[in-house]
Recover the amino acids of this structure.
């Protein structure tokens, strides 16, 4: 690990520092970077949780943090050495947003990170900036306005285009509430695997009245996962699986099926398609772990399916998307997200071709963006089934025939779900 002396054990702050360097300087994914750094450091459960809080929080809130650092540091961040940038971001997060971290610990440890990175010449500068941040960063961040999309994007740490999209689709009040909600830790939810668990009451957790297999828990015991008793899956994602409407005796096509949460949720004879070889293997492991003997994995391109895959009663298209409904659990996604309506429409058309006349196609995306949601279904042009009548609690606020879970309203990930029927 580049942030410490070789052979010494890494601290939680060093792990977070390493994650910031990998994410912002190398374009790495936050979850993978954290997992590898924390595993290499051998952190215990408490330090691992602290490291995750610091790493994910700093990545998530980097935009207002950078604003405050430049305002009080009086030097553009782009001109600083990468380790200095990372240390200032980490220190700033602890000083203004991490809660109960003592200011002296945040300052001293961030300065030490710069020293351990071999940048002794930058130590005095880092120390001076952090002390100014300790005195004034809270006031700088609290004074940021949120009356317009660009102002709110800076205050709540989102790209401008995301704020503009939510302003357009939801209005200011709902957009700001959504931004705030997705800056908080996501709830931990699992789907109970009925193939392994016959008594739901045997597992502790909070039930959901509309999702029979959902449990919201404080933490997921390792033995639950190892035994295939549960699958980590948000309640929004579970709703999408239910809305596919699959029944015993039906043939069901699941496109883009990895890692397998929804595929193993479906009833009937399921063909689960995945393009990438590694993810297809991951999908097969999920199927085996959960005992989903009704699921057959096929590695194929969902846009160019093998000719034999046809005549299905139903299809589920859980399409790639910008992921704007999952930003609470994926801290770096907001900085790399992009809308994919052309791909989504292509996958829907491919699925519709393989469903028998009268069969249905469910469309699910974990995003809150009309361009990827209702606009894609409108472009498809097939008759829409009224899912809102089946799940009124999750009705889309503008298009009640669709479903839309909203993190600030439903306390789960944001999912758009529609179901159409092939004439």
């Amino acid at each position: 690990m580049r942030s410490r002396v070789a052979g010494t054990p890494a601290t939680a702050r060093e792990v977070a520092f390493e994650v910031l360097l990998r994410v912002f300087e190398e374009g790495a994914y936050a979850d993978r970077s954290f997992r590898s750094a924390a595993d290499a450091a051998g952190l215990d459960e408490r330090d691992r949780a602290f490291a995750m809080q610091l790493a994910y929080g700093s990545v998530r809130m980097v935009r207002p943090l950078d604003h405050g650092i430049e305002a009080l540091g009086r030097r553009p961040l782009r001109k600083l050495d990468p380790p200095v940038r990372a240390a200032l971001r980490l220190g700033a997060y602890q000083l203004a947003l991490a809660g109960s971290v003592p200011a002296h610990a945040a300052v001293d440890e961030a300065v030490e990170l710069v020293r351990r990175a071999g940048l002794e010449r930058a130590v005095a500068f880092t120390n001076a900036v952090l002390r100014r941040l300790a005195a004034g960063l809270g006031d700088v961040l609290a004074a940021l306005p949120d009356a317009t999309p660009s102002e709110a994007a800076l205050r709540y740490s989102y790209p401008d285009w995301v704020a503009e999209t939510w302003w357009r689709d939801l209005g200011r009040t709902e957009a700001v509430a959504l931004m705030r909600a997705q800056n908080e830790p996501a709830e931990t939810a699992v789907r109970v695997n009925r193939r392994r668990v016959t008594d739901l009451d045997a597992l502790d957790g909070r039930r959901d009245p509309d999702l029979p297999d959902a449990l919201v828990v404080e933490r997921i015991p390792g033995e639950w996962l190892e035994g295939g008793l549960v699958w980590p899956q948000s309640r929004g994602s579970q709703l999408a699986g239910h809305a596919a409407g699959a029944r015993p005796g039906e043939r069901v096509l699941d496109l883009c099926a990895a890692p397998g949460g929804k595929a193993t949720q479906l009833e009937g004879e399921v063909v689960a398609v995945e393009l990438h070889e590694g993810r297809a293997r991951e999908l097969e492991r999920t199927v085996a772990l959960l005992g989903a003997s009704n699921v057959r994995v096929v590695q194929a391109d969902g846009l160019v399916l093998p000719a034999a895959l046809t005549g299905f009663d139903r299809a589920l298209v859980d399409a790639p998307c910008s992921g704007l409904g999952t930003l609470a659990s994926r801290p770096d996604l907001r900085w790399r997200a992009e809308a994919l309506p052309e791909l989504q429409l292509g996958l829907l058309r491919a699925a519709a071709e393989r469903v028998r006349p009268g069969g249905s196609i469910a469309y699910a995306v974990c995003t809150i963006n009309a361009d990827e949601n209702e606009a894609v279904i409108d472009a498809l042009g097939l008759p829409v089934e009224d899912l809102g009548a089946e799940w009124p609690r999750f009705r889309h606020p503008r298009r009640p025939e669709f479903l839309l879970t909203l993190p600030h309203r439903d306390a789960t990930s944001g999912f758009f779900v529609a179901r159409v029927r092939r004439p």
Remarks:
- Confidence is low (pLDDT under 50) at residues 1-9.
- The chain has two domains: 12-144, 235-421.
